[in-house]
Amino acid sequence: MTEAPATELVARSRAEIAAAASENRFLTLLEAGAVPRERLAWLAGEEYRIVGSDRRSFSLLASRYPEPPAGGLFLALAQGEGEALALLLDFAGALGISEKDLSAYEPKPLAQAYPAYLAQRAMFGTASEVALAMLANLEEWGAYCARTAEALRSRYGMDEGAVGFFRFFAEPPPGFADHATEVVAVGLASGDSPEEAARAARMLHAYESHFWNALAEDLT
After folding, report:
1. Residues 156-174: tens digit of each pLDDT
2. What crossing angle do the helices spanning 194-215 and 113-124 adopt, rounded to 10°?
3. What is the pTM (predicted TM-score) of this model?
């Protein structure tokens, strides 16, 4: 089995995501120190919901596709979300927010479009769709997390412990790209639609943009 079609699909999807990228207004404001701490509480609250949802979505995918390479990939992603949750609580704690507060937080509908779509694909999509969507969007998401961590350190005086959640996502897990590409390759070889996989990557990117836009709502 050759991975050439999968590698080409990954490259094409990454190019499409890069071409669709636009200014992240929330991060621009964060880097200027213009995001009030109340809005940082939004960030913690939205991420609390997202991490919990994504953990369940990846666990579901691991149960739907238990055989390698997909099973290992999705199980690792689910475990990663568990690690991220503990780090998120450190960020919330730096804001004076407890886990009880996070549970009571009222999420913004458009900020939750991304995990809702991932949950839909986890239930009804293919392993190749989700693997490609995560892989194609990974570079932009990681860059955004790195920028968030640096802004919180430089503009809001947070220590490394408080920004560990964002550092965690700033770099991909070792071997993730190769592993995800292998999942895509296996899926394509078994008859998965490359067009549907590419569409999932584009949709996930659009919904992630809604997340950042919701955080920037009404900020000037």
Report:
1. 999 999 999 999 999 999 9
2. 160
3. 0.96
